[in-house]
Design a protein that fits this description.
single chain, mainly alpha, 68% helix
Length: 170
């Protein structure tokens, strides 16, 4: 087995366990939830096959669903952002293109590019997750506040992780 594949599998479990053991209880004011596992999905190499991305999104989302008792909401949201991810990356392609095996990280692209890349995808993930959980738009404003607060919280924690562990997935 390739060394990078082994590292990816280990990092997968680190993100999953950190999410379900620590961040499940790190809720702010019953409104802001941190879903750091999205960071694992968004930090996959740029050239990863879209089907592999969606499969990883499903597996990670399903694993989180098992611990959160959320009946597939995280799997749905994760597969959706993995589907959208390559289209979004294509729109953000730098002038010279991406390097081989490039990671969309702060270390490789800077904080401004990283925020432009992750913020809309995190927002989409949380929008699909919370509005599906709410069962529609009956609680539109309350759900929107949850989406915005959780998006900011997740992005902040992702940036902290990026600065604390800058070269962890190369």
């Amino acid at each position: 087995m390739n060394r990078s594949v082994v590292i990816q599998v280990l990092v997968f479990f680190v993100y999953l366990f950190f999410q379900v053991l620590i961040l499940k209880n790190a809720v702010m004011f019953h409104v802001a939830f941190c879903f750091l596992y999205v960071g694992y999905l968004l930090l996959m190499p740029v050239e990863t096959n879209p089907l592999i991305l969606m499969a990883l999104g499903f597996v990670m989302g399903f694993a989180v669903d098992v611990f959160y008792d959320s009946l597939g909401l995280h799997a749905l949201s994760s597969v959706f952002i993995m589907y959208v991810r390559n289209y979004w990356l294509a729109g953000l392609t730098p002038q010279g293109g991406y390097d081989a095996n490039a990671l969309p990280s702060v270390a490789n692209n800077g904080v401004q590019w990283f925020s432009t890349y992750t913020l809309p995808l995190i927002f989409l993930h949380h929008t699909v997750l919370f509005y599906t959980e709410a069962g529609g738009f009956d609680y539109f404003w309350h759900t929107l506040i949850k989406v915005l607060a959780s998006t900011g919280y997740t992005l902040l924690v992702m940036l902290i992780v990026e600065y604390v562990f800058p070269g962890r997935r190369s």
